[in-house]
Amino acid sequence: MTEPTRWVTAAVLKALAGQQLQHGDVFSVRQLDDWLSGSITAEQRVHATTRLCALRFLSHRTRIVDGARVDGYTLTAEGATAVREAAAGAVRKSGPKGAHGKRHVLDPQSLSARLWALLRMRRMLDAESAASTLCDAGDDYERMRSSIRRYLHRWADAGAVQESARRINAQGTSNGLKRFVLVADAPEPPSMYVRKGGKA
User: Fold this and answer.
1) Alpha-carbon distance 51 to 58, whole Å?
2) What single DSSP character describes residue 126?
3) What is the pTM for the complete model shown?
4) Least confident of 20-24, 170-174, 186-190
5) Helix (H) or strand (E) holding 41
6) Pairing mode, if any, of strands 180-182 and 68-75?
7) In this structure, what are the phi and psi dihedrals at residue 136, rounded to the nearest 5 degrees?
8) If you ran DSSP here, which 8-state letter would residue 15 be given?
9) Per-chain mean pLDDT for the chain
């Protein structure tokens, strides 16, 4: 990530403050991009909304509008407080900041990094095929598949991937396997909080 996450989260909070949003208000990704007016990139917006969801300032939601899936967010009570503080000027100083303390470094050999690379290459994944591809001899396959599901759902909540309406037919499943489509490409996954050497 080229810009510190906390700067772009501040930019999003400032944009929400400009709309005078209240607890429970709902907005779409397209609306948020309009409010940001190009002040940050789509990649930075994904990082920011990921962080705000992790802080429970926003909750991710998906609606079906005219047969199409529309990703959006709901402002939580904690988020409404943060927006009010932003409106009052209690926003981190604008502009990119240098690193503060130790930065989290994503290990390229970690499961999240390898899964993200595979998703960027294939553009669409399900947990079963991803686990089959990434699992090495001696790895716990079931544990890895469970971790992969968790990452894919987390990235969907962040708006970086989207759950496909169509599933893959697979033996032993009632509805088929969920497929996830990449919608916000970036060099690194939206969740940046895996320390170097960390395991999934």
Assistant:
1) 9
2) -
3) 0.48
4) 170-174
5) none
6) unpaired
7) -100, 165
8) H
9) 77
Write the single-letter amino acid at 57.
F
Q: d(Cα 125, Cα 117) in Å, to the nearest integer?
A: 11
When the candidates are 1.10.10, 1.10.287, 1.10.8, 3.30.70, the CATH number that belongs to 111-182 is 1.10.10
Domain with CATH 1.10.10.10 in the chain: 5-87
Return the half-sphere exposure (C-beta side, CA atoms, 13 A cut-off) of residue 152: 28
Collapsing DSSP to helix, strand or coil, 127 comes out as: helix
Three-state DSSP class for 28?
Answer: strand
The pLDDT of residue 8: 80
- pLDDT tens, residue by residue, 97-156: 344 444 445 677 788 888 988 888 888 889 898 898 888 777 788 999 999 999 998 888
CATH number of the structural domain 5-87: 1.10.10.10
Which structure tokens are listed for 168?
């893959």
* Helix (H) / strand (E) containing 133: helix 127-134
